[in-house]
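Changelog note: in this version the structure field was regenerated for every chain. One regenerated record is shown below for reference.
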Amino acid sequence: MSPFQCNHDGSCSKVRLCCIETEMTLTRKDVERIEKRGYTRAEFVVRSEDGFCELRNVDGHCYFYDPDTLLCTIYEDRPEGCRYYPVIYDMRKRRCVVDRDCPSRETMSRQEVRKVCNKVRKLVETLVREAKFHDGPC
């Protein structure tokens, strides 16, 4: 059993800080999966200054975050990075770490970080490759 408290159950007892002013980067597969739900990429995607496709923020939170219910409206089809959060890849340290902004970070074990680190590393490689070789809008 995981000691991590949030564990992406789709809800939170307080504001989901990971959904506020998000900088969640999207893969092409993420965008396609969300589009299949009936959204257009212009609704939920923006291109960052460094060329990555990211979730759009509306009123200070992720496009898909409902502040009234504190729920993700596309939870089952959420981006891959959301699935692994709060494990992120620190490019400078070249290793997986737990995001210091996550209020539940203390409950995340090293074993849990190791368990998803290869997936997070592959995700980052995909994101970098897609940003480098993709021209135009996301």
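Spot check on this record: Residues 17-132 form one domain. Helices lie at 28-35, 41-44, 80-84, 110-132.
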